[in-house]
Amino acid sequence: MADVTRRFHLRHLRSAPTSWVSHTVRGAAKHEGTGLSFWYRPLTAALSEVPVDDRELPLLFHARTEDFADVTVQATVTYRVSDPAAAAGRLDFSIDPYRGTWRGQPLDQVAGLLAELAQQPALDLLARLPLAEALTTGVARIRQSVADALAADPRLTETGVSVVSARVVAIRPEPDLERALQTPTREQVQQDADRATYARRAHAVQQEQAIAENELQSKIELARREQELVEQHGANTRREAELDAETQLVAARAEADREEVASTASAERLRRLAASEAEAAWVRDEARAAGARAVGLAEAEAEAARLAAYRDLPPAVLQALALKELAAHVPAIGELTVTPDLLSKLVGRLG
């Protein structure tokens, strides 16, 4: 809307670039155009403002098809005021000179006119189409029909309104009827989904079978390798036992040979030792016997010499020597009285 400001008893109007403004005083046009800015007296000024930008008009209306099915049409019409002077002459686009607002609702009148003009060709076309055809091919046909009808309507031309485009967004039946129409498609989609599910399950079963077979083959191969491992381990153990037995046998034979050699050497050494000891004992015995013989001969010779010495001695000397010898072999005697009689008896015994 126009921007109106006050300065004493005057008013200043400033319009938007997309608004056409007309200023008339006593039937004479003072200002006319888009994007204007001017001063005026509100008591004598007649102002009109017409938007010249493109505007969208959404439409939603009901219709009935050839087979008596109710449908809802959703469309949009884009329009603009191409001749603002004609529009201002046919519709009330006047604004309040004090506030700058429209006194009426001119755009609602334009919207009502466009809605009536757009609905009529759509209703006529849908009345000649069955529901299925209206839902499948009706959008393009209704769009073309509405566009042609609005472009050729003389009232829009006289009002200065031109239609830029007409679009049909959707044609929809009642909810129950729409669900019924969707049932075959839904069933077909469900069947396709079921087939896909069955195919996926079948493929999964095949994959599981293949996996199970692979696992079974793997287990069989693992068992075979374990068997080979056990057999190889047994063969290795048996071979180790044989090698150990052979090693022990060789060691036992070597030990027996060593013991036999040692026994033979020991026996020989013992024999030699026994012979040496016997010979040494014989030599010792011989030496001992020779010594004993020499000692006996020496003692005999000494005794013979002693006896030879005693033989020439007088009796008295012999008695004295005898007493001396006796005294050497008797215990100590404190006092001894020897009478001639006792001495003569003793000598007699010694002689």
Give the helix level as a range of percent: 55-70%
- The CATH level-2 architecture of the domain at 3-173 is identified as 2-Layer Sandwich
Q: What overall form do the CA principal axes indicate?
A: rod-shaped
User: Strand sequence of the main sheet, in spatial order?
Assistant: 4-3-6-9
The major pleated sheet works out as: 4 strands, antiparallel
Mean pLDDT: 84
Range of strand content = 15-25%
Helix/strand class: alpha+beta
Helix count equals: 7
- Terminal Cα separation, in Å? 199 Å
CATH class identity of the domain at 3-173: Alpha Beta
List unreliable stretches of 5+ residues: none
The CATH topology name of the domain at 3-173 reads: Tetrahydropterin Synthase, Chain A
Count of strand segments: 10
- For the record, what is the CATH homologous superfamily label of the domain at 3-173? Band 7 domain
Cα Rg: 81 Å
Please write the string of helix (H) and strand (E) elements: EEEEEEEEHEHHHEHHH
What does this structure look like?
The protein is α+β, with helices and mostly antiparallel strands and 351 residues long. The chain has a domain at 3-173: 2-Layer Sandwich (Tetrahydropterin Synthase, Chain A), CATH 3.30.479. The chain contains seven helices and ten strands. The chain has helices spanning 84-90, 106-127, 131-152, 154-159, 175-311, 315-329, 340-350, and strands at residues 3-7, 10-14, 19-25, 28-34, 37-40, 45-51, 55-64, 70-81, 94-95, 161-173. The longest helix is centred in the last third of the chain and has 137 residues, at 175-311. The model has no long low-confidence stretch (mean pLDDT 84).
